Amino acid sequence: MKILISGTPGVGKTTLSKKIKEQFYLKHIELSEFIIEKDLYTSYNKGLDTLEFKANKVRKYLQDYLKNDDNFIIDTHTVDIVKKINFDLIFVLRISSDILYKRLLERKYNQSKITENIEAEIFGIVEERVYEYFNDESVYIVILDELCEEDLCNKVSSIINTYINK
């Protein structure tokens, strides 16, 4: 099973992915860490406190890395990197800008990076990209505002189990 968990940085993609990975015995790829581990970045943007990379290079490397694997979960906000993967299920996590702001402050993001990510969440940039690249039938939007971590995991697990049992 191939699963994508996406959303603006800070919404909880990696936390959820780790729980789903354990429950369903999937390989987990946190794309930002993967880019660092495989030395796929080209430079560091100090203003946005982020690594820069060539999308085509990362996409090709990832495709080669996964070519013999059908059971994985990828978490990323950069969905254009994974647009050529035929995912079975795609989850886009959304959260209120107030909660996201607090989380980004806790991560000690600089103000320009916080602003960029809050705006991306308000305008639904990641969700828009997901619908641009993938089949609507496999996409689930999960609003986190009222969900605790356990409830989120249960909701997503239920959707995955329904998919497995269909």
Automatic annotation (TrEMBL):
GO biological process: ribosomal small subunit biogenesis; rRNA processing
Pfam families found in the cross-reference section: AAA_18
GO cellular component terms given for this protein: cytoplasm; nucleus
UniProt KW keywords: ATP-binding, Cytoplasm, Kinase, Nucleotide-binding, Nucleus, Ribosome biogenesis, rRNA processing, Transferase
Span of the signal peptide: none
The keyword Transferase is assigned to this record: yes
EC class name: transferase
Keyword Transferase listed: yes
Region annotation LID: where it falls in the sequence: 106-116
Similarity field: Belongs to the adenylate kinase family. AK6 subfamily.
PANTHER family named in the record: ADENYLATE KINASE ISOENZYME 6, POS9-ACTIVATING FACTOR FAP7-RELATED
Quaternary data: Interacts with small ribosomal subunit protein uS11. Not a structural component of 43S pre-ribosomes, but transiently interacts with them by binding to uS11.
Record-given protein name: Adenylate kinase isoenzyme 6 homolog
The organism of origin for this protein: Anncaliia algerae PRA339
